[in-house]
Amino acid sequence: MQLFYDPDLKSGIHALRDEEARHAFQVLRKRVGDVLDLVDGRGGWFSAEVKAISKRECLLDVTELRREVSRAGHRTTLLVAPTKNIDRFEWILEKATEIGVDRIQPILTHHSERKRIRLDRLNRILESAMKQSLRAWLPELGELLPLQQALEETHLNDLRLLAYLGEKETPLLRNNYQRGDNVSIAVGPEGGFSPEEAALAQSLDYGFVSLGPNRLRTETAAIAAVHTIEQLNW
Fold first, then answer.
1. Residue 46's domain is classified under what CATH number?
2. Which residue intervals define the domain Ribosomal RNA small subunit methyltransferase E PUA-like in the entry (predicted)?
3. Residues pairing with 87 in the sheet
4. What is the pLDDT of residues 82-104, one digit of tens each?
5. Residues 6+ apart with CB under 8 A from 27
6. This model's pTM is above 0.70
7. How far apart are the first and last CA of the chain?
8. What share of the chain is helix, strand, coil (3-state, %, to 5)?
């Protein structure tokens, strides 16, 4: 299945957004009468017949097939520090979307080496990963925030967890999460969270968890965390 994405989809005649229209015409060589599968990033699945198509426009006759109430029975928020190598951060976004995440909140920490990100490019990464993995929900991507602000803005009803190496007897994530819990989990940068940041997190009701005995790169830790949560919800 080749999925198309348009956040403004609705039943009836609809002009596909420019980028997707160009892809349909120039890359996939779609023609009048072809049927496309589409999602709106908010749980909606659609089918549409191409009524007119050119380099500039793709007109569709759209029918809504079904609507998912939510991505899953739980909500996962990943707070993660962007990596110095932006390719590694883009990989986090791609894989977390494929596995299943609802919100990604980039964080600025004491050891952060990347202090700027391009949300427009990163949102395109999320869109592509959503379509590739045949999902109808587009994860929300927040602006880069200082750690304290990001921690404070966490949903009050979430289980709050911080992946931290500074404690000898830190419980494993898999032993500290219950199926169905909404969760916010924070993963630090290269160099990890500082003791002061860990203390701040504790003051905001974040509990420490371990992702295993080995020291992991930021991107590995982020995906290990998301995958563990999703696996425990299968």
1. 2.40.240.20
2. 16-62
3. none
4. 999 999 999 999 999 999 999 99
5. none
6. yes
7. 24
8. 30, 25, 40
